[in-house]
Amino acid sequence: xxxxxxxxxxxxxxxxxxxxxxxxxxxxxxxxxxxxxxxxxxxxxxxxxxxxxxxxxxxxxxxxxxxxxxxxxxxxxxxxxxxxxxxxxxxxxxxxxxxxxxxxxxxxxxxxxxxxxxxxxxxxxxxxxxxxxxxxxxxxxxxxxxxxxxxxxxxxxxxxxxxxxxxxxxxxxxxxxxxxxxxxxxxxxxxxxxxxxxxxxxxxxxxxxxxxxxxxxxxxxxxxxxxxxxxxxxxxxxxxxxxxxxxxxxxxxxxxxxxxxxxxxxxxxxxxxxxxxxxxxxxxxxxxxxxxxxxxxxxxxxxxxxxxxxxxxxxxxxxxxxxxxxxxxxxxxxxxxxxxxxxxxxxxxxxxxxxxxxxxxxxxxxxxxxxxxxxxxxxxxxxxxxxxxxxxxxxx
Length: 396
Known about the structure:
alpha/beta, Rossmann fold, 2 domains, six-stranded parallel sheet, 14 helices, 14 strands, 15% strand
């Protein structure tokens, strides 16, 4: 019996986040393997640590003693970890000389700003040096205003000064994080895009592209008639770097009888009061309701500004037979580059207007065979087999 300790942060089953859905699918898949005994350790910081230490990126390091205690008690053969808890987990695993698989979902913990944007629609190729990062952090004050993350004038405020100081401190935290990632046995990423970015600072031999974004097969819902709407799915936190303000600007230029449905978070009224007649906004909804929205929409829009290590929304849209327009920053693009139901467009308003009109006019159809192929490539079964084989390779 192989004992596996899974170290992560708590995830709600109802969470709309792709990382949460993917992790739960991986965990449930591994549980089905009778050769494995799994123990999950879900740790979250208290309010005080969240307020003062988490912004610096060091809050979860307080859990090293607790992780070591669980290791001593459970005596795992291997550890699997993801999210910000990854770094104390890797440190603990190295202290106890236990192999550890680190799932790297995004660049938020290896970029001092949390979001690896270096220009309008441009993502950073990887941590280079202190001077380069400090210049980027200084420019970030203006860029946050440009992408709609902050109001005009914020870049001259005390709050802006404090953020800049914190980000410059986080440069050193990111260096520690990268050092620890290099100490993991294997780092799993979802795409070649993420492998390329991470390999600038991490030993490429320790990076492996794997199916860490498995999706559940499901019975199709009742047939949904396509409506004159486009879909934009956002996380529950501030979504400027996911392209929210870009979409709000874009809504002014969609065909006259079309609307954009924004789902996943409630948008402040002030943000879309000028285009409220073109926007339908829903907060978090159930998986079933989200699938209905995918199925009833003509297109799904994924205009992310930062590195989207994969972009689970893209495959969720495809399996609901809805084409996607995506920015070049999405790792999932490379898996579907030869299909006609994905269009990759640089983040320029005029190009997206043109792409929307083109995709609506030609109405590319996603067939049952296309969906079957997607499920076979990103199934829980395939993920379970990949993880099982990797664990055995590491241990034996």
